[in-house]
């Protein structure tokens, strides 16, 4: 039973990690993980950009941060 749950969890994780960039590009608000994937940097680097003020982000709760895609475009231009 436990091994089945682990297998299912690993399968779901793999689906999320291999999510195509095109799906991420459609969204208006991105998670830190999606932002890192889009910019090809680590999540820690995204948090560093947010902390230094180079990238604007909204904290919806203590563990829920969203980045507006227009702010990412502004960072890159």
Give the fraction of residues assigned to helices: 55-70%
Distance between the amino and carboxyl termini: 51 Å
Strand content: 15-25%
Largest sheet: number of strands, sense, barrel closure: 3 strands, antiparallel
Tell me the structural class.
alpha+beta
Quaternary structure classification: single chain
Beta-strand segment tally: 3
Summed over residues and divided by their number, the pLDDT gives a mean of 88
Describe it.
With 77 residues, the chain is α+β, with helices and mostly antiparallel strands. It has five helices and three strands, in the order ααβααββα. The protein has helices at residues 2-17, 21-26, 32-39, 43-52, 69-76, and strands spanning 29-31, 58-61, 64-68. Strands 1-3-2 form a three-stranded antiparallel beta sheet. A hairpin with a 2-residue loop joins strand 2 (58-61) and strand 3. It starts with a helix and ends with a helix. 10% of the residues are buried.
């Amino acid at each position: 039973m436990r091994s089945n749950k682990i297998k299912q969890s690993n399968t779901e994780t793999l689906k999320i990690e291999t999510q195509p960039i095109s799906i991420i590009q459609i969204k208006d608000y991105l998670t830190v993980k999606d932002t890192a994937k889009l910019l090809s940097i680590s999540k820690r680097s995204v948090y560093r950009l947010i902390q230094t003020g180079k990238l604007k982000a909204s904290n919806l709760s203590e563990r829920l941060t969203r980045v507006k895609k227009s702010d990412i475009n502004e960072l890159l231009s």
